[in-house]
Design a protein that fits this description.
Structural class: mainly alpha
Oligomer: single chain
Largest sheet: none
Helix content: over 70%
Number of strands: 0
Shape: elongated
Order of helices and strands: HHHH
Length: about 120
């Protein structure tokens, strides 16, 4: 975080202060942390399963990756639960909107049928 803050030209403590006062920023922070957690978990699992390449690139610190995963496991799990709950709420809202639309269509059809029946009654 310090390197990113320095690169952005801000004090390293500034993002933490904003996270405390800005709900949107805090939500985006948790989403980013959850995505990073998932990516790190997949990368570590891949390396543990298949080994590390000998391409001469930067050394991957498995122990530090495990420490980070342990440190942020609860936050990532909470964020996933929030996301899943939001998805459920969106599905329910969509179903509710479709039911209201269907009800309006049925009521309009009944009204049209009633008008037709009234007209037929006048002519019949």
């Amino acid at each position: 975080m310090s390197a990113a803050a320095i690169a952005a030209g801000i004090e390293p403590s500034h993002p933490y202060k904003v996270k405390q006062s800005d709900n949107w920023f805090a939500q985006a922070w948790r989403e980013a942390l959850c995505e990073g957690y998932d990516n790190l978990e997949l990368e570590l699992l891949h390396r543990l399963r298949f080994g590390e390449g000998k391409d001469g690139g930067a050394k991957f610190d498995n122990a530090n990756a495990l420490r980070l995963l342990t440190q942020h496991r609860e936050t990532a799990a909470r964020q996933r639960a929030i996301r899943e709950n939001a998805d459920i709420a969106e599905v329910r809202a969509s179903i509710h909107a479709k039911l209201l639309d269907m009800r309006d269509q049925v009521l309009a059809r009944r009204k049209a049928d009633s008008v037709i029946a009234d007209v037929d009654g006048l002519h019949g």
